[in-house]
Amino acid sequence: MHDQFPGLPPDPFADDPSDPAAALEGLDPGIPLDDGERLAVEEDLADLDVYERLLAPRGVLGLVVVCEDCNDDHYHDWDMLRANLKQLLVDGTVRPHEPAVDPHPEDYVTWDYCRGYADAVFRYNEPRI
């Protein structure tokens, strides 16, 4: 399933009949996004593309997001976040995945930082993205 969403780590239990997560598949099906939610995710994907083009060359590896469930920072590289958003469009859910191993927080920025940075670049410069 993860091959459908490049950027997500490979499923270590792919094609394993004893996959411990197999029992969860039927318990929590994704809820299809309504038109407004779908539009918001598509806009996030478009924004993500711009942010990556502006910030990756400056050494930013991705985004940090505060998890609503555990209240911890979760670090997502550009590809993983893109895959998560695409999966949300297709499935209405995002499957769990392993967090980044020993991330360096200074290499990640927030969505708000990205928005502000992009606004400044587009307002005061002629960006080449």
TrEMBL record:
Q: Which InterPro entries match?
A: DUF5319
Pfam families xrefs: DUF5319
Disordered: annotated segments:
1-35
What this protein is called in its record is DUF5319 domain-containing protein
Organism expressing this protein natively:
Gordonia malaquae NBRC 108250
